[in-house]
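Supplementary Methods S3. Complex input for the zinc ion-bound model.
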Amino acid sequence: MVHRDYQLRSRRIAAIGPSLPPRPPPSYTPAQLAKNQILAGIPNYFPIRRTRRHDRSRGLNRSGNECYRLAALQCLLHLPRALSWFRQHNEVLANTDANPRVKNPCHLNPRNAVTGVVSRTKQNCMACNMRGLISQYWGDHQMNGEEPQPLNPSDARLRLIYNYSTTDDRFAPDGQGVDPQCDAEEWMTYFLDQCQQACDPNSAPDWRPGYQALFQFEFEEERFCSVCDTPISRRTNDPASSFKQPSIGFINCPIDRASPGTVADAINAQLVEHPSGGAGIRRNCSNCGANQLLTRRFRIDAAPEYMLVKFNPAYDDTPPREPGSEVPPPIMRKITNKAELPGIDERLDLTHCQVNSSTKLEYKLVAVLPHSGEVGHGHWIATVRNHPRWYNINDGSVNQVPLNFALSNPEVVPTDWNCRHACVTRDYDSGRCWSQPR
Ligand SMILES: [Zn+2]
Ligand SMILES: [Zn+2]
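Predicted complex, serialized as structure tokens:
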């Protein structure tokens, strides 16, 4: 018996042995490792003041067409590691008369010396304004009993952010003083860009790398013949613009109304660029001849802490041209039928999209910015996670909602709300990720 047992066991070992490929130890690309090391130095908790009696989110009251900015700000105000990055701006490390040391200062950057934009402030700096807004938003002022009250449109910090924005033509009021209706993602991207430019790299070497670790994907690009899929190598003299640039996420994802899929499907689709919609690069293929269009495929070389996915729910509803008549003017509409809109995943597994897929890359949902109305006008709200709760924030009003609300392409009255942007955060060990010091 002993002998037979031994035989069986050795046969089993022989059978299992060769079928197990050696598994590489988990590792990161150098670019990912650099991002991770920077993120480790930026705390991941909400800066809620200890004296605040309720950690509920706060509304931001609106005057005029401000909702796109307020929804974008609400999203940013619920990203704890990003809040810490803002709070490291002009952070006083050692405040002695002899040797005041300030981290990430902005007063040495000539671009902040512009006068006349924000009057009576020492500097013209968007990051300073956001830092001030954060301490007000999560601080204990304007508490009515326990509940934090919304900030008014006349709030000094909101006005400073607004006045700064109006220096960009897209966000400036028209001649009659009426604010334009803009896109929340366009404003958020503009806002973050202004913030990361606030510091001069010489006096604040950690500031921009912090922004890049929080908000910027870096991609590796591979090129193939679009006919036969033969790999075609990059040329050293290819213009930089022909490579995929770092980005905040996946912007203007198209929606196939017949088969809308999910956020994960939209990301997968963006990682392959088909020749018809791509950069239009042509190269000689060793297999099928000269001058073939290229297909480009992208893999994530380094993933940031936060990712934004933005859908474009507009479609062309122009009636077909009648024979003999003139071309009708184009009519653009927004998808409002829920069945034609993509599903929102709470968790996204992007492990397989990486250059080095030996380590998991997962994201989880932290905010959805829905829009109601038509193409070009309507209203923005923000559905945000303030762990462990979710809030639907419509200007000044804040209501706790279940997770399903955020996942449902929020349908409230009126029923034509739909997801324009979903913002997600990287999923680490959840215990470490969401602890709030109180
Ligand atoms: Zn500043
Ligand atoms: Zn080919």
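The radius of gyration is 25 Å. Residues 48 and 393 are 18 Å apart (CA to CA).
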